# Entry
Amino acid sequence: MNYQISAIGVGIIAAYSCFVLMIVAWPLNKLFKAFRWKWVVIVPPVLALLVAPWAEEYWIARSFHEACQDAGVHVYKKVAVEGFYDETMRGGYGLIDQYGYRFMEQRTDDGKKIEHIEKPNGQWQVTILDHPTARYHYKYAYQPTPSQHEESIGWKLEKAELQAIDSRTGEIVGRETWFNRRPSWVEGLWINLLGSDLIQCPDPGVRSYKEHLPKATLKPISNK
# Structure
C-alpha cells in the first residue's frame, strides 16, 4: 500500500498528540485523581484520539489499494463500427479525422439536440437529430451533472468510469476505470499549498501501453 504521510504530517501529528495529552489526558488525570481505576476511564478516549490520525490514513490507503485492483482498461468485446454516439465531449470531428470512423454523434452546444457528423468526399456534413441513432454509446457511468462524473465510493475516495455500451442490449462492451484519493485531514492541512492533493490510479503520469477507450473496443470498420 502507498501511504500518503509526509515528514510535515508526522510533525503535525506529534503536535496534535501533545495537545491531546495536555488538554485531555492531564485534566482527566486530575479530575479522577482519587479514583482507583482512573486509567480505565482515561486511557480509552485518549488512546482513540492519539491513534485516530494514523487509523484514518491506514483506512484510506487500504481502501484505495483495494479499489485500484479494478482500475484500467477492460475490453469485453471488440466491435467493428461505422461510428458511435460520444456523450463525453464534443470531439467527433477529431475522431473521424484521426481514426477513420464514417460518422460520429454528439450533443449540440446547448445539449438539447444531437449532431450527426459525417465527412463524405472530404466535406463536413452535420445533421441535427432529436435522439442518437448510433447503436453504440460512449459515456460516463456516473454523470449526475454535465461537469460531474466522479462518484464517492468511501471516505476520501472517488471512482470515475467511461463505458462503451450496446444501446440495444445494454451490454457493456468495454470500460475504463480510475480512482482518486484525497489526503487525510493531517496532510490536507498543508498539502494544497504545494499543488494538487489528488492521487490517482492508474497513475496518469505513467505511460500505459494499453489502447484506451473508445478505440480499444469500438473499432472503425476500415481498421478491423
User: Anything to note?
Assistant: The chain has two domains: 7-68, 70-103+131-223. The chain is about 30% helix and 25% strand. The chain has a mean pLDDT of 89.
